[in-house]
Write a structure and sequence with these properties.
about 35% helix, 5 strands, about 240 residues, 7 helices, DNA polymerase, domain 1, Ubiquitin-like (UB roll)
Length: about 240
């Protein structure tokens, strides 16, 4: 009968279980590294972002007080129009929006197309480039004032006979400009294509007409017919 003492004294001992080798420390993955870097950057930027969010907005700059409208009287097509206009209102807007004369067209609104051409004391101007208050006391003529009651002017009839328009948007400016052109030529005004600018041009040639009408653009391309109409109106005058 074996005893506890005997078991301890015997040389045969039970084999001990083998322990697994210590595991190597795991290397951090690339994804975990990038996630940690992004989290650290976010935490570092948070105080800066919070400080920006808490910065009070600058008070708005005081604006210039609005200039009240003032009475302006415009003499247009032989009629006096008493209008209340701000000093910044252009002659074009005064004619269309305040006087209700919609014949004058707004094209480029920067003096490049000539659709807004009107006559001020017989002188052709781009109404989009001038202020209405500057033309008090002048005689303004728009396309509505070229005809005499129900009778078209010779130039208007020539435009119809020679089909000198297509969409018609530029036609009011073309008519006003051509009307002034004929008067300028009769007055002896030279152009840049006149052979001798010191003398009166002898003939209103097609080249003269094209040069004198060069400030009026026709996107439909009716230039040949416009020249023919102006030439015919000049010959019938």
């Amino acid at each position: 009968m074996s005893t506890h003492t005997e078991c301890q004294d015997s040389g045969d001992t039970a084999p001990s279980e083998e322990l697994p080798p210590p595991s190597q420390p795991s290397q951090p993955s690339r994804r975990r590294f990038l996630q940690s870097a992004a989290a650290a950057a976010t935490i570092g930027a948070a105080p800066h972002l919070r400080a920006q969010a808490q910065t009070p907005a600058a008070p708005p700059m005081p604006g210039n007080p609005a200039v009240p409208p003032r009475p302006v009287t415009l003499n247009v097509n032989g009629r006096a129009y008493s209008l209340q206009l701000e000093p910044r209102v252009t002659l074009l807007d005064a004619l269309r929006e305040y006087a209700g004369l919609m014949g004058t067209k707004k094209g480029c609104d920067r003096g490049q197309c000539g659709a807004c051409t009107v006559l001020a004391d017989g002188r052709r101007i781009n109404s989009c480039l001038t202020l209405a208050v500057m033309h008090e006391g002048e005689n303004i003529t728009t396309v509505e004032g070229l005809a005499t009651q129900d009778t078209l002017s010779p130039l208007q009839r020539a435009f119809i006979e020679h089909d000198a328009f297509q969409c018609g948007y530029c036609t009011p400016g073309q008519l006003c400009s051509a009307t002034a052109l004929l008067e300028e030529f009769r007055g002896g005004a030279a152009s840049t294509v006149t052979a001798d600018v010191r003398t009166r041009p002898a003939v209103l040639s097609d080249e003269e007409i094209r040069e004198r009408m060069s400030g009026n653009i026709c996107r439909c391309g009716a230039y040949a017919n416009i020249v023919a109409a102006v030439r015919a109106a000049h010959g019938n005058a």
